[in-house]
Structure prediction request, 214 residues.
Amino acid sequence: MLHKLTGLYAITPEGDTKTLLKQCTAALEGGCRLLQYRDKMAAPKDQLTRARLLRQLCDDFDCKLLINDNLALAATVQADGVHLGQSDTPLLQARDALGSDALIGITCHGNLALANAAHKGGADYLAFGRFFHSNTKPNAVAAELGVLAQARGQFNKPLVAIGGINLDNAHQVINAGAHMIAIGGALFGQANIEQTARQFCRLFEPSRKNGISP
Ligand SMILES: Cc1ncc(COP(=O)(O)OP(=O)(O)O)c(N)n1
Ligand SMILES: Cc1ncsc1CCOP(=O)(O)O
Ligand SMILES: [Mg+2]
Prediction:
Protein backbone atom coordinates (compact mmCIF):
# COMPACT_ATOMS: atom_id res chain seq x y z
CA MET A 1 0.00 0.00 0.00
CA LEU A 2 1.30 3.49 -0.83
CA HIS A 3 2.00 5.33 2.40
CA LYS A 4 0.58 8.83 2.41
CA LEU A 5 3.45 10.16 4.53
CA THR A 6 1.21 11.76 7.07
CA GLY A 7 0.61 11.26 10.77
CA LEU A 8 2.72 9.70 13.50
CA TYR A 9 6.34 8.83 12.68
CA ALA A 10 7.81 6.90 15.59
CA ILE A 11 11.54 7.14 16.35
CA THR A 12 12.83 4.12 18.28
CA PRO A 13 14.54 4.56 21.66
CA GLU A 14 17.83 2.99 22.78
CA GLY A 15 17.52 -0.24 24.78
CA ASP A 16 17.69 -4.01 24.56
CA THR A 17 16.19 -6.01 21.72
CA LYS A 18 13.32 -7.55 23.64
CA THR A 19 12.19 -4.20 25.08
CA LEU A 20 12.51 -2.54 21.66
CA LEU A 21 10.28 -5.16 20.05
CA LYS A 22 7.70 -4.87 22.80
CA GLN A 23 7.67 -1.06 22.58
CA CYS A 24 7.43 -1.01 18.80
CA THR A 25 4.69 -3.63 18.78
CA ALA A 26 2.67 -1.42 21.13
CA ALA A 27 3.21 1.64 18.91
CA LEU A 28 2.04 -0.28 15.84
CA GLU A 29 -0.94 -1.71 17.73
CA GLY A 30 -1.80 1.91 18.48
CA GLY A 31 -1.87 2.81 14.79
CA CYS A 32 1.66 3.96 13.94
CA ARG A 33 2.43 3.21 10.28
CA LEU A 34 5.84 4.81 9.91
CA LEU A 35 8.74 3.70 12.09
CA GLN A 36 12.38 4.80 12.13
CA TYR A 37 14.95 2.48 13.65
CA ARG A 38 17.43 4.93 15.23
CA ASP A 39 20.19 3.26 17.22
CA LYS A 40 23.39 5.04 18.13
CA MET A 41 24.57 2.56 20.76
CA ALA A 42 24.17 -1.10 19.82
CA ALA A 43 26.90 -3.20 18.23
CA PRO A 44 26.49 -3.75 14.47
CA LYS A 45 25.41 -7.39 14.91
CA ASP A 46 22.70 -6.35 17.37
CA GLN A 47 21.58 -3.59 15.02
CA LEU A 48 21.25 -6.18 12.26
CA THR A 49 19.22 -8.48 14.51
CA ARG A 50 16.96 -5.62 15.58
CA ALA A 51 16.48 -4.24 12.09
CA ARG A 52 15.51 -7.73 10.84
CA LEU A 53 13.01 -8.16 13.65
CA LEU A 54 11.56 -4.71 13.02
CA ARG A 55 11.26 -5.51 9.31
CA GLN A 56 9.16 -8.56 10.19
CA LEU A 57 7.08 -6.60 12.69
CA CYS A 58 6.44 -3.77 10.24
CA ASP A 59 5.43 -6.25 7.54
CA ASP A 60 2.86 -7.71 9.93
CA PHE A 61 1.29 -4.26 10.37
CA ASP A 62 1.81 -2.87 6.86
CA CYS A 63 4.03 -0.23 8.46
CA LYS A 64 6.90 1.48 6.63
CA LEU A 65 10.35 0.96 8.15
CA LEU A 66 13.09 3.50 7.71
CA ILE A 67 16.63 3.12 9.05
CA ASN A 68 18.46 6.10 10.48
CA ASP A 69 21.93 6.88 9.11
CA ASN A 70 22.86 3.38 7.94
CA LEU A 71 22.38 2.83 4.21
CA ALA A 72 23.99 -0.61 4.20
CA LEU A 73 21.73 -1.83 6.99
CA ALA A 74 18.69 -0.46 5.19
CA ALA A 75 19.65 -2.33 2.02
CA THR A 76 20.44 -5.55 3.89
CA VAL A 77 17.10 -5.78 5.68
CA GLN A 78 15.12 -4.38 2.74
CA ALA A 79 13.88 -1.44 4.74
CA ASP A 80 11.50 0.94 2.98
CA GLY A 81 14.07 3.69 3.17
CA VAL A 82 16.55 5.74 5.17
CA HIS A 83 16.66 8.97 7.09
CA LEU A 84 19.81 10.97 6.42
CA GLY A 85 21.25 13.98 8.20
CA GLN A 86 23.54 16.60 6.76
CA SER A 87 26.63 14.65 7.86
CA ASP A 88 25.36 11.27 6.72
CA THR A 89 25.60 9.57 3.30
CA PRO A 90 24.71 12.02 0.49
CA LEU A 91 21.17 11.81 -0.84
CA LEU A 92 22.20 10.94 -4.41
CA GLN A 93 24.40 8.08 -3.24
CA ALA A 94 21.52 6.73 -1.16
CA ARG A 95 19.13 7.01 -4.10
CA ASP A 96 21.58 5.15 -6.34
CA ALA A 97 21.94 2.39 -3.77
CA LEU A 98 18.29 1.98 -2.77
CA GLY A 99 16.45 2.84 -5.97
CA SER A 100 13.54 5.04 -6.94
CA ASP A 101 10.95 3.35 -4.71
CA ALA A 102 12.90 3.90 -1.50
CA LEU A 103 11.74 6.56 0.92
CA ILE A 104 14.57 8.94 1.67
CA GLY A 105 14.12 11.67 4.27
CA ILE A 106 16.55 14.49 4.85
CA THR A 107 17.26 16.60 7.94
CA CYS A 108 16.92 20.28 7.09
CA HIS A 109 17.14 21.70 10.66
CA GLY A 110 15.42 25.10 10.29
CA ASN A 111 17.07 25.96 7.02
CA LEU A 112 15.19 26.47 3.76
CA ALA A 113 18.37 26.36 1.66
CA LEU A 114 19.05 22.84 2.95
CA ALA A 115 15.41 21.99 2.25
CA ASN A 116 15.68 23.33 -1.29
CA ALA A 117 18.75 21.18 -1.96
CA ALA A 118 17.01 18.10 -0.55
CA HIS A 119 13.87 18.87 -2.56
CA LYS A 120 15.85 19.26 -5.79
CA GLY A 121 17.83 16.13 -4.99
CA GLY A 122 14.64 14.09 -4.84
CA ALA A 123 14.08 13.61 -1.13
CA ASP A 124 10.73 12.03 -0.27
CA TYR A 125 10.26 14.18 2.80
CA LEU A 126 11.92 17.15 4.42
CA ALA A 127 12.49 17.04 8.18
CA PHE A 128 12.62 20.21 10.29
CA GLY A 129 13.47 20.62 13.95
CA ARG A 130 14.14 20.40 16.74
CA PHE A 131 11.16 22.60 17.62
CA PHE A 132 11.15 22.02 21.39
CA HIS A 133 13.63 20.82 23.98
CA SER A 134 14.53 17.19 23.24
CA ASN A 135 15.77 14.83 25.94
CA THR A 136 16.68 12.37 23.19
CA LYS A 137 18.93 14.86 21.40
CA PRO A 138 19.37 17.95 23.59
CA ASN A 139 22.00 19.56 21.35
CA ALA A 140 20.07 19.19 18.11
CA VAL A 141 19.94 22.41 16.08
CA ALA A 142 16.85 24.44 16.99
CA ALA A 143 14.27 25.54 14.40
CA GLU A 144 11.49 28.16 14.40
CA LEU A 145 7.90 27.07 13.87
CA GLY A 146 7.58 29.57 11.01
CA VAL A 147 9.89 27.51 8.81
CA LEU A 148 7.08 24.96 8.38
CA ALA A 149 4.71 27.49 6.80
CA GLN A 150 7.51 28.78 4.59
CA ALA A 151 8.36 25.23 3.50
CA ARG A 152 4.66 24.59 2.77
CA GLY A 153 4.73 27.59 0.46
CA GLN A 154 7.92 26.55 -1.35
CA PHE A 155 7.87 22.77 -1.60
CA ASN A 156 5.10 20.44 -2.61
CA LYS A 157 6.53 17.67 -0.46
CA PRO A 158 5.72 15.99 2.87
CA LEU A 159 7.16 17.84 5.86
CA VAL A 160 8.21 16.22 9.13
CA ALA A 161 8.51 18.06 12.44
CA ILE A 162 10.82 16.60 15.11
CA GLY A 163 12.26 17.40 18.49
CA GLY A 164 10.55 17.40 21.88
CA ILE A 165 7.08 17.00 20.40
CA ASN A 166 4.46 15.70 22.83
CA LEU A 167 0.69 15.54 23.13
CA ASP A 168 0.56 19.07 24.56
CA ASN A 169 2.58 20.84 21.88
CA ALA A 170 1.98 18.68 18.78
CA HIS A 171 -0.88 20.92 17.64
CA GLN A 172 1.63 23.77 17.25
CA VAL A 173 3.69 21.97 14.60
CA ILE A 174 0.63 20.47 12.91
CA ASN A 175 -1.07 23.84 12.67
CA ALA A 176 2.20 25.36 11.45
CA GLY A 177 2.20 22.92 8.52
CA ALA A 178 3.80 19.59 9.47
CA HIS A 179 2.38 16.55 7.67
CA MET A 180 4.12 14.14 10.04
CA ILE A 181 5.28 14.36 13.63
CA ALA A 182 8.40 12.40 14.52
CA ILE A 183 8.16 11.33 18.14
CA GLY A 184 10.68 9.60 20.38
CA GLY A 185 10.44 10.15 24.12
CA ALA A 186 6.84 11.32 24.30
CA LEU A 187 5.77 8.00 22.80
CA PHE A 188 8.26 5.36 23.93
CA GLY A 189 8.76 6.90 27.36
CA GLN A 190 5.10 6.47 28.25
CA ALA A 191 3.68 3.70 30.42
CA ASN A 192 0.97 2.93 27.85
CA ILE A 193 2.63 3.22 24.44
CA GLU A 194 -0.31 1.80 22.49
CA GLN A 195 -2.76 4.30 23.93
CA THR A 196 -0.31 7.16 23.42
CA ALA A 197 0.25 6.19 19.78
CA ARG A 198 -3.51 6.20 19.31
CA GLN A 199 -3.71 9.70 20.79
CA PHE A 200 -0.99 10.98 18.44
CA CYS A 201 -2.72 9.36 15.45
CA ARG A 202 -6.01 10.99 16.40
CA LEU A 203 -4.43 14.43 16.03
CA PHE A 204 -4.49 13.82 12.28
CA GLU A 205 -8.17 13.02 12.02
CA PRO A 206 -9.69 15.65 9.72
CA SER A 207 -12.03 17.16 12.31
CA ARG A 208 -9.09 18.03 14.57
CA LYS A 209 -6.79 19.65 12.12
CA ASN A 210 -7.97 23.25 12.01
CA GLY A 211 -8.15 23.33 8.25
CA ILE A 212 -4.62 22.09 7.49
CA SER A 213 -4.88 19.56 4.69
CA PRO A 214 -2.41 16.68 4.37
C1 LIG B 1 12.51 12.33 10.96
C2 LIG B 1 13.88 12.69 11.41
N1 LIG B 1 14.27 13.98 11.35
C3 LIG B 1 15.50 14.32 11.75
C4 LIG B 1 16.37 13.37 12.23
C5 LIG B 1 17.76 13.73 12.64
O1 LIG B 1 18.72 13.16 11.74
P1 LIG B 1 20.26 13.58 11.89
O2 LIG B 1 20.35 15.04 11.72
O3 LIG B 1 21.07 12.75 10.98
O4 LIG B 1 20.58 13.21 13.40
P2 LIG B 1 20.57 11.75 14.07
O5 LIG B 1 19.17 11.29 14.18
O6 LIG B 1 21.36 10.82 13.17
O7 LIG B 1 21.20 11.96 15.39
C6 LIG B 1 15.93 12.05 12.29
N2 LIG B 1 16.71 11.05 12.73
N3 LIG B 1 14.68 11.73 11.87
C1 LIG C 1 16.79 12.69 16.23
C2 LIG C 1 16.42 14.08 16.57
N1 LIG C 1 16.78 15.11 15.78
C3 LIG C 1 16.35 16.28 16.21
S1 LIG C 1 15.51 16.14 17.68
C4 LIG C 1 15.70 14.44 17.67
C5 LIG C 1 15.17 13.55 18.76
C6 LIG C 1 13.70 13.27 18.66
O1 LIG C 1 13.25 12.59 19.81
P1 LIG C 1 12.27 13.28 20.87
O2 LIG C 1 10.89 13.18 20.31
O3 LIG C 1 12.43 12.39 22.10
O4 LIG C 1 12.73 14.68 21.13
MG1 LIG D 1 21.96 10.96 11.15
Observations:
- The two ends are 17 Å apart (CA to CA).
- The pocket of LCLJCK34 (ligand 1) is lined by residues 9, 36, 38, 68-69, 83, 85, 88, 105, 107, 127, 137, 160, 162, 182 (CB under 6 Å).
